[in-house]
Amino acid sequence: MWFDSMRPYAPGAGKFALCLICLQIIAIALMVNATIAFALAVSVAAILIKYYKIDPEPLFLLLMHGIVSVSMLYDPITTFAFILVIVSVIFTFGDCDLPTERLVIFVISVTVPAIFGKVAASITCVLVGVAIILYRLRPLYPESLALLALGSLAITLLVNKVVATIVVFTLITILTGLYVLNKVKKRALEVAPVTTQPPPRNISSHPNGYLPLSNPTESLDLHGHSVTGAMKVLHMFLQEHEEEYRKNRSRHIRHVTIITGDTCDNKNLIRPTVENFLKINRYKYDVSTEVPGLVKVDLESHVL
């Protein structure tokens, strides 16, 4: 079902309430002053970056592209004047190293609206933004999507107050829809009749609640996956077992095993990415010193 692929992005009760409060505060501020609403959106985005330790570079590229592109489409003469002033100041007084990627994105953001008409330039700028998201923000975690939503809202607030209001209520609708559908799906799974029920597992036979690597249902082997594919599979695997553990702690095993592979050849990026994901999401985990590339995760540390 299409919604099964969206469930990893559906918020829980706590995050849903927090996101809803933030969006409502921005909506109220928007009724008073669009500048205040813009400042609130940027502040919430900064808090998300700090709290979840998200790499800000891709977001900076996307934000720079969005602001410059929108400014060029809205008022190219004034934008050119500001760019000229900023470049002159940097060239005269600044001694900073400008990364090639930033320079390329900046040049594209300026030249595309200047060369093409508004319609063609708008489509091209959107495609460039999508390319930045796909190639620099992968894999897309819920936190990254939340930042993209806030960034889009912030840019819209600079352009048009009415459109920004529509964006706020659209985000509230999407957020509420995901939350409600996730609750309905969970309830349907809980009341669904069980045709076959496996015999209860003997948890005491596995010290500390860990299962052996040979158990196919409680371990996840990430060999053969790309980094993006591995993180998507890992997210779904952990969410599935957290739900099972939450429903029946006495029957479901508390720990799961993730097989990432060894990093001795410095080519395996899956293991550090997995460990970073577990740290950001505050999982308790243990990296095996005996078996390279073996990570054991404690579900209890993440289950509310």
From TrEMBL:
The chain crosses the membrane at residues 15-48, 60-91, 103-133, 140-157, 163-181. It comes from the Eukaryota. It holds the Pfam family Smr. Keywords: Membrane, Transmembrane, Transmembrane helix. Residues 220-300 form the Smr domain. InterPro entries: Smr_dom (IPR002625), Smr_dom_sf (IPR036063). SUPFAM superfamilies: SMR domain-like. This is Uncharacterized protein LOC106051118. The gene is LOC106051118.
